[in-house]
Each structure stands twice: as structure tokens, then as C-alpha cells.
Amino acid sequence: TAGVVAAVLVALGFYLIASWLTQEPPNSSIPHWLRWEPPNYSRIEDGLYLGGSVPEPPPDTQAVLNLCEMPDPYQAAVHRWEPIPDAEPAPGLDWLRRQVEFIEDQRGAGRTIYVHCRSGVSRGGLVVVAYLMAQHGWSRDQALAFVRISRPMVRPNPGFMSRLQEWERSLK
Fold first, then answer.
1. Mean pLDDT across 118-138
2. What is the DSSP string of 95-137?
3. Are 46 and 111 in contact (CB under 8 A)?
4. Which residues are catalytic?
């Protein structure tokens, strides 16, 4: 019985420590520069990252596709700024095709590319899902499911989802 009690106390201790470590203190009393936060980007495939605006893009990024309405300060060999609002109407198929071709060109040149919008949820999701559909012959839903394996929060807005359905038809 003493061994069981000790095991329970150890387990309880681990639980309490884990709970304490994962909670944000009230009013964030820890200075922001001491807090560790995971980067707001995800590796989708080798050489392809999707995310939000971050202080620095993923390591070894050589190309950036910025979909934000504001320019970013990232240093990369190739940088493209294609601002779109996260709202309807969705950009046209010609615009989407140009972004997909840009990603294809960068990956074909062996460059790691970071596709980003403000949060890495809707606009970036639109472009990366469209790229994967074209690259792998996947449906919209297959490509979206694949992206969500690495970045579960990806949720293109309804207008973008409709545009991806159009994109799927255009690829056939």
C-alpha cells in the first residue's frame, strides 16, 4: 500500500506541474520575452511552409509569398507581395493560378518557400490548398485534409472554399 500511495503522489505531482506549466498566469505577469510560444507556422511538405505573420520566417526560407495587406520585413532571395483581404469576393482563378505557379517555380528551383497571411488560417490556406491540388491532382477536400494534418486551424473562408471548388473543376 505504501508503494501505491507513493505512485499516486508522484502521478499527482506530475499532473500538477504539467497543469501549472500549461496555464497562462493572470494578466500575463511573465514578461513576453521570457515566454516561449511555438512559432506560428507549419511545415506542410519538405520546402513548403504555411503560417501567419511572425518575427522571422522558418529556417532556411529562401522565398516568401506574403498575402497580408501589409508588407513584411523578411529577408529572402525571392519575395512576392500579393495582398488580398480575408473577405469576399475571393480573388479570381487567374490570380490563384499565378500564386500556384510562383510556388511551383520556387520549389522547382529548390527554394524553401513560406506562404503566409496574418494568421495562417484563411488566405494562406487558400493558396497552399490550391497548390497541392494542382501538384498532386487532389480534390479540394483531400488537399485541405492534408494541410490540416500539419496545421489544423486552416479554415479558408466560404468565398475561398467556393473558389477552390472552381479551381478543382478547372484542373480537370
1. 96
2. HHHHHHHHHHHHHHTT-EEEEE-SSSSSHHHHHHHHHHHHHH-
3. no
4. 117
Environment class of 148 (CB within 10 Å of its CB; exposed 0-12, middle 13-18, buried 19+): middle
Site of grid cell 493560378 = 97
Residue 132 grid coordinates? 497541392
Continuous H helices in the chain:
2-22, 93-108, 123-136, 140-150, 158-171
Q: What is the CATH number of domain 41-171?
A: 3.90.190.10
For residue 172, pLDDT beyond 80: yes
* Ranges of each domain in the chain: 41-171
More confident residue, 10 or 52: 52
Query: Which grid cell sits at 58?
Result: 522558418
Mapped onto helix, strand or coil, the DSSP state of residue 146 is helix
